[in-house]
Amino acid sequence: MSSLTRRQFHHLAIGIAAGATLPKVTRSETTPILRACEGTARLAPSKYPETKIWGYNGIVPGPVLRARQGERIERVFLNDLPQASSVHWHGIRIENAMDGVVGMTQSAVPPGAEFLYDFALRDAGTYWYHPHNRTHEQMARGLYGALIVDERADAPVVDRDEVLLIDDWRLNDKAQIADGFGNIHDSSHAGRIGNWITVNGDGGWSREVTRLTRMRLRLVNAANARIFMIEVHGLEGWVVALDGMPLETPQSLDKLALAPAQRADLIVDVIADEGEEALIVSRERADSYAIASFTVLEAGREARLTKPDALPLNPIPALGSLKTATRAEIRMEGGAMGGMRKAMMGGQVTGIRDLAAAGKIWAFNGTVDRSDAPLVEASLGETVRIAMINDTAWPHGMHLHGHHFRRIGRDGALGPLRDTILMNRGETVEIAFVADNPGDWLLHCHMLEHSASGMMTWLRVT
Ligand code: C2O
Ligand code: CU
């Protein structure tokens, strides 16, 4: 383990830097409430004050919402924030009207108002929820939570099942959330990268386990922009699902890149010895830091369990012919060192100075923000393939709403089902999916400062 350090509290210089009408809420007395409001959380060590946050039910992360595949989730969203908001159920294949996209599938829920979310859970897996209005600010303030859908059919047996929402906060030297949300420097570079990492709102997340305990760990990257390069020490196991969707064969866990919004379900055995610590670390350049630790208390099991079976697959339609599929292309441009000179903004060709003055730094196919016309209009059941060309100097994590897609490899091999895919600088990635969910769906970068400053398009399924 080279230069494995516990996290440090850096003092960073902080950079300065609307839609349909609301349906009437017809909730019953018994509908549970999900309330977005201000709160405080002990994010930093005890020598610092508690941090003022915005949280669902006042806590960070928000409550774990958990149900079984085939059931429904019903929540009255109550907005007690000083800002309009909404809830997006990330990765859930949902009815369009419940997708929570302000200005597209619903209007913003103003302070003091409420909105009823009610939807069926077709797929099992690890999902999460967050606002879709001023997302870069609202998530940075703590608005996110896990949505766990338990398998209807038998899933591999584990001793523990832990949800780990990993976040990257930018705190000032009083441990308060730094402002400067969406400043031009963050927007044009890697996004809002923080200086303090938490798991489930805890800067030193840790559990006690016995040796050879088998755990299902559900990792969720809830950071605005940080990519975690996950490695484990004293744990050994498999990746069994990505972005909620089971892999057909569990894959030996080695290194794992977790881009913003991505999830990974791991099944791991604790192989560290009694008295040792097993660690989940993130490696950045030459340095690694622990993000979660397991203290091995006593001996536990005599022998390791055998390799787990795959999780039961979700009912995702198989891809149709890729030859006759509807095709589209996204050329991603802009950002620092990108050399973008101009782009369409609000129907006008606009020079880079005016774009930057309006906080717009990135374009898809020469247009910033959501264009009037969809990138693709597909009829229900059609197979769609989209080539995405990252003509920028930065990585991006592209997220499609309402559908899971597969990457088409150069040799034609298909990758695992995902809802968010990490693209390196200069890389071209082609994805394919069956457009089986009617409605208007966003396709955007989940590095939230990037989507707020232009990296956004949409598809229509009719
Ligand atoms: Cu996780 Cu468009 O969002
Ligand atoms: Cu991006």
Provide an overview of this structure.
The protein is mostly beta strands and 462 residues long. It has helices spanning 135-140, 184-188, 352-357, 448-452; strands at 4-5, 33-41, 51-56, 65-68, 72-79, 88-90, 114-120, 125-130, 145-150, 160-169, 196-199, 206-209, 214-221, 228-233, 235-242, 245-252, 256-258, 263-270, 277-284, 287-296, 326-334, 342-345, 348-351, 362-364, 376-378, 382-390, 396-400, 406-407, 420-423, 428-435, 439-445, 456-461. The strands form 7 sheets. Strands 1, 12, 14, 17, 19 and 20 form a 6-stranded mixed sheet that branches. Strands 11-10-13-18-15-16 form a 6-stranded mixed sheet, with no helix packed on it. A 5-stranded mixed sheet has the order 24-21-26-30-28, with no helix packed on it. Strand 19 (277-284) and strand 20 (287-296) form a beta hairpin. The protein is globular and about 70 Å long. Residues 1-22 have low confidence and may be disordered. Residues 88, 90, 130, 132, 261, 399, 401, 442, 444, 446 line the site of CU-O-CU linkage. CU-O-CU linkage (C2O) binds at residues 88, 90, 130, 132, 261, 399, 401, 442, 444, 446.
